Amino acid sequence: MTGITGSTRLYAVLGDPVTQVQAPAMLNPIFAGLGLDAVLVPVHVEAADLAGVVTGLQRIGNLDGLLVTVPHKIEACAFADMLSPAVRAAGSTNAMRREPDGRWTAENFDGTGFVRGMAAAGHELAGRRVTLVGAGGAGGAIAAAVLDAGAARLQVCDPDEEKLSDLLDRLAARGRGRVAVGPAPELERADVAVNATPLGLRADDPLPFDPASLPAGAVVADIIMQPRETPLLRAATAAGRPVHHGAHMLSHQLDLYREFFRLGEFE
Fold this sequence. Notes:
With 267 residues, the chain is of the alpha/beta class. The strands form two sheets. It has a six-stranded mixed sheet with strand order 2-1-3-5-6-4. Helix 6 links the parallel strand 8 and strand 9 (179-182). 31% of the residues lie in helices and 20% in strands. The chain is globular, with a radius of gyration of 18 Å.
C-alpha cells in the first residue's frame, strides 16, 4: 500500500492508554508486504466510552477488525457474537473479526503468543512452577496457555478476589489440581514469574513483585511492551535474574493475526 485510498480497509486497536501500543508498527508493514490496502490505527478510548466507541466502529462498513488492549479485554467480549474457546477460558479477547454475514467473532492470542515467545527464547514451561501476577484480561489468557503448555504448578495472584474466583472456575478443567490463587505472589519456589498487570506503564508505578525474592535462575517476564526495559525488568537484571521482554508476546502473535483476519500470504 502506498497511502490511504478510498478503498482502504480499516483496523483499530483500542486501549487506555494507547501510546504504548506496538501493534500498528508491526502489523502495518505486514499489510504492505502482503500488498493490502489496509491500515491499523490506535484508538484511545476510556472505559466509560467503550460501548459507544465499539458499537460505532462496528457500524463502519470498511472496518474489518479490532485489536483490544488494556484495560478493555474483558469488557470487549460483550460486543462479540461468537467467542472462541480461548476467549471462554481467558474471559477476555484481544482480537475481533467481522464475519461475511456481519457478525463479530472474538479470539484471544495473548496466551499462545506468550508461550510461543517464551519457548523461542529458550524458556520452556513444561514441568515448571509459574507465578503469575494479574488475573485480568491478559492474565487469564496466559494462565490457560501456561497450563496447556504443561506447567507443573501455576499460582495466580491478584487483589481482586472475584477475578481470582472467576478465573479458577474457568481453569478447573485444565488445572487438574495444578492451580492455586491468592492475593500475594509466592516467589520463593517459582521457576518463572510473570507480570500480567499494567504496573510499569507509568514511571511512578510500584513493582508488581520483588524479583530478588525469586530463586537464582528464575525467569522474570513482563508483558508490558513500552517501555521495553520496565522497572521490573531493570530490578530483575540488577538482582541477577534472567528477563523476558513484553515484545515477544506480540511478535509471536503476528502469524496468528494474519490467519485470523484472513490476510493471505506474503508475496
